[in-house]
Design brief:
By secondary structure, this protein is mainly α. It is built from eight helices and no strands. The protein has one domain. The N and C termini lie far apart (45 Å). Keywords: Membrane, Transmembrane, Transmembrane helix.
């Protein structure tokens, strides 16, 4: 895997998580208190930095075969989850992910929550909302950085790609002062789901002792195969009786009629 491919893979995956975290932070700051929201954001970033700093070097001492097997399995778990949601959304069986609707829902909930002061934090609700949102989305970013970076023995480059994704999304969000509703997140999740599933299959098989013909040259073959299979499922699901154009904030599946 080349350095540019590693950077691009981590960057795209982290953009999706950064957009979701940005939506929560903007809702907390807009409806409540920006100072407390900033405290929550900063605390979460410190915790995430510590996690990457500890896990990254620790994984470098794991034997390569065992590391690839574990990383491959974990990537398959994450990748198939993302791909499943993307297929259901594209097939009309799951409501599309709408950051604008989610932002409004978070904003309404934040405005009605009672105010509470704890220590230096003047608004505990804003702090916890920001902290939990950034930490949960950031843990997926940390996972992507650690797994991709450790497997390629280049955690710093993976961390740089993640940092660039966060900076780009944050800058765009600050400039727009709104969630990035125009970002094609559903398409990104489909692409990232295919990408994570592809690397999961590739590295997991290598960790189990398989040899791919052409080594890394097998990746451009596996990825289209996974994408075509996923698109085939979308075509099967997109039946007139099952289609729905509903757009709601929660991740709620639509029951077939």
């Amino acid at each position: 895997m080349t350095s540019s491919a590693l950077f691009l893979a981590v960057f795209l995956a982290c953009v999706v998580e950064a957009v979701e975290a940005l939506t929560i932070v903007l809702a907390a700051g807009t409806a409540r208190d920006w100072r407390s929201t900033g405290f929550g954001l900063g605390t979460a970033l410190v915790a995430l930095t510590a996690i990457v700093a500890v896990l990254g070097p620790a994984l470098t001492v794991v034997p390569l075969a065992a590391l690839r097997l574990v990383v491959g399995c974990l990537l398959l778990i994450f990748g198939l989850q993302w791909l499943r949601k993307a297929i259901l959304r594209a097939g009309g069986l799951k409501a599309r992910h709408d950051e604008a609707a989610i932002f409004q829902a978070e904003l309404t909930a934040a405005r009605t929550a009672p105010a509470q002061t704890r220590g230096m934090v003047t608004d505990w609700y804003a702090f916890t909302l920001s902290f939990k949102g950034v930490l949960l989305e950031g843990l997926e970013v940390a996972f992507i950085v650690v797994t991709f970076g450790s497997n390629e023995h280049n955690v710093p480059l993976a961390a740089l790609a993640a940092g660039c994704a966060v900076v780009v999304v944050a800058a765009a969000g600050i400039a727009a002062k709104a969630p990035l509703a125009r970002v094609p997140e559903n398409t990104l999740k489909f692409v990232v789901g295919v990408m994570l599933t592809t690397f999961g299959i590739f590295w997991g098989s290598e960790g189990a002792g398989a040899d791919w013909p052409g080594s890394d040259a097998a990746l451009p073959v596996i990825a289209p195969a996974v994408a075509l299979f996923a698109l085939g499922l979308v075509v099967l699901l997109r039946r007139p009786a099952r289609r729905t154009d509903a757009v709601v904030a929660p991740d709620q599946e639509v029951k077939p009629t």
